[in-house]
Each structure stands twice: as structure tokens, then as C-alpha cells.
Amino acid sequence: LSERTLESYSADLQRYLDRLTAFGVTVPQDVTADHVLSHLSELEYEGMATRSIARHLSAIRRWHFFLLDENAAEHNPTEGMNTPRFPKKLPAYLTVAEVERLLNAPDRSTARGIRDAAILEVFYSCGLRITELANLPRKDCSLEEAALRVRGKGTKTRMVPLGRRGVEAVAAWLDVRAGWPQKDDALFLSVRGRRFSRMTLWRVFQEYTRKANIQKHVTPHMLRHSFATHLLDRGADLRAVQELLGHANVSTTQIYTHVSVERLAKAHHDFHPRA
């Protein structure tokens, strides 16, 4: 699992253990199904999203299975518990026109603008996660092959085409990068020569969202959603999009087909004379 996933599970378990302590439970053998359900109910009362509660239950269930396997407990209080159901939420995305405005927002007459234009181009051209972009090494970007070698979740590596616009933007940035302080091997560097954190990249993204005057709440992940949606809208194969996104299971990618079908249904409703 990725480092961020491990951190999330660790935090979930610590919260659960703290709750057990508050219940007066100090040994695993004394944990009952009521304790687990009370903890989950408290999380819901605190306003936690259903999807996050499901992740909590997953961590708790795995922990109790581990205790059972290690003979540290004689029963698993989560046995038979169903994962909470949560409604499927279609991913939000930008229109092609909105993406164009966003990509044109940086001032390419400045060194920083050249860098930021390359960041946005790579985000959209390759459909990367924000962590993948922040951690992308310079050596894994090949302009000759017009491709990136991306290390995704679970240390899985995939090759992603960069595209003509992406190659042009990155080439311009590399000319600028050569004259900057270089204290890291990341493709994209701050003015101090260090790699970006996820939060710094988020702030860069938000800055250009405002400049592009996009009137909706936009996150960096929406560029990834837009990447997938625009490919499928233009007839790309679902399996190919799955490979580009680095999804382990095609069912994860299929949600984007629902977005495309929804758009087709809207077009039919709006423009067909018999709709």
C-alpha cells in the first residue's frame, strides 16, 4: 500500500483504540460488536462521510483478523458486519473550454509562468494524481519518447504519453530549470530548487483557477477526471484509459463511462425534437 494509505489506516486504528480506552476496554479479548458499532455511530454523529466510515471499518476488521491469526484474541467482533453503503458520486470535471482557459492562464513570458504552464499541461495531458506529479523525477520524463514513467499507488509503474503540447511546455520549462537552484531530482522545482509538496501544488492550481475565472469549486483531481472524461467522449477504449490512469481494476475506470452517458442523455433531452 502507498505511504498515504498506511498513514490513513494507522490514524483510523489509533482513533478506534482511543475510543476503546474511553469505553474502558483495555484488552482485545473484551471488545464486542457493540463497541465497534458504537464507535462507527460516533463517527457518523461527528459528521464523517460514509466512505470514510467504511474505510475505518476496513481497518478495524483487518486488525481484528490479525489478532485472531496471532492468537491474541479468540473472536472477531466485526464478523458478519456489512460495509456501509454509500451512493455513487459521479466525478466532477471541467469542460474542454474551461481546461483551455486554465492552461492559458500562466504568463509564459516569465520563468515562473513557464514552469506553472508545464505543471498544468502535464497534469491534464497525463491525467496524473497530485502526489505522482509532485514526486515525478526528472529522469522519468523523456521528451524523445514523449512519455513519462509514473510511479503510482502501491509502487506500480506505468508509461504515460505526454503529447505534443506537453512536450513543448516541459521543454520550455527544462530550459528555465537548468538555471535554477537544484537541490532535488524532481521534474518540477520551487524557486529554491526543492520539490513541491502536495499543498504547494494545490495552491499553484488554485491561483490559476481564479485567473481563468472558472466559476465552480475546482480541485487538482478534477483535471484527472477531465482527462479521462474527454478521452472517453472522443471514443477512447476503456481499457486504454484504465492503463493511462493506473487503475488496478477496470471497474474503477467505468465510472467515467457514466459521466459520458449522462452527457449524451442531456444532449438528447435538450436537442432532440421528440425528447
List descriptors.
3-stranded antiparallel β-sheet; 275 residues; globular; mainly alpha
Overview of this structure, please?
This protein is mainly α and about 280 residues long. Helix content is about 55%, strand content about 5%. The chain has a three-stranded antiparallel β-sheet, with no helix packed on it. Strand 2 (about 145-150) and strand 3 (about 155-160) form a beta hairpin. The termini are far apart.
Quickly give the structural class: mainly alpha
State the order of secondary-structure elements, H for helix, E for strand: HHHHHHEEEHHHHHH
> What is the helix tally?
12
Name the poorly predicted regions: none
Question: Sheet bearing the most strands, described?
Answer: 3 strands, antiparallel
Please compute the radius of gyration using only Cα atoms: 23 Å
Shape: globular
What does this entry show, briefly?
It contains 12 helices and 3 strands. It is mostly helical and 275 residues long. The longest helix has 20 residues, at 3-22.
Write the layout of secondary structure elements.
Layout: H1 3-22, H2 33-45, H3 50-69, H4 96-103, H5 111-126, H6 130-134, E1 141-142, E2 147-151, E3 157-161, H7 164-177, H8 198-211, H9 221-233, H10 238-245, H11 250-253, H12 255-271
Antiparallel strand pairs: 1-2, 2-3
Helix pairs in contact: 1-3, 2-3, 5-7, 5-9, 9-12
